[in-house]
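Suppose you are handed a protein chain with no further information: no name, no annotation, nothing but its sequence. What can you learn? This example shows the usual starting point.
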Amino acid sequence: MAATPSNMMPLGTRAPDFKLLDTISGEIKSLGDLKGAIGTLVVFMCNHCPYVLHIKPQLIAIAQSYASNGIATVAISSNDIQNYPDDAPDKMHALMAEWGNPFAAYLYDESQSVAKAYQAACTPDIYLFDADLACVYRGRLDGATPKNDVPLTGEDLRHALDNLLAGKPVDANQLPSIGCNIKWKEA
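A reasonable first move is to predict its three-dimensional structure. Written in structure tokens, the prediction is:
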């Protein structure tokens, strides 16, 4: 469980487009298919990461509560499934069924090109884009990790979401997410 920080994509960066397999529906989905009317939350995650499992209750609550406000949550797994078979698409589908399918999609980035385009480094790596798909937030859910006693609240991400919904600027002082490194394929 090596703690890896986010790379912190520059604010204002346009969300890179993609066409990936949605392991929930079995269909190929693009960013345009999934984007929310007000904003799009993109979360790089995987099935087995202890950091992702630690934030699961807040991640699900945020995805569900903000969906009705025009925020779509899209999860993406980019891990190498040859060396991490627990992250294979069939296991991703099963996990979403277990979690109650809280996201608009749980996408499989087999080539890892989408993770690279987003400069994703860890799981979870969280990005919030406005209605025009410009990055307004990238960073942590909150200060809680499996290794500390900080309460899990989702306050950092919730604050960014609330400001976006209110039409207010999102504070540019953002802290990186910390998690397991993305399991890159060997070259």
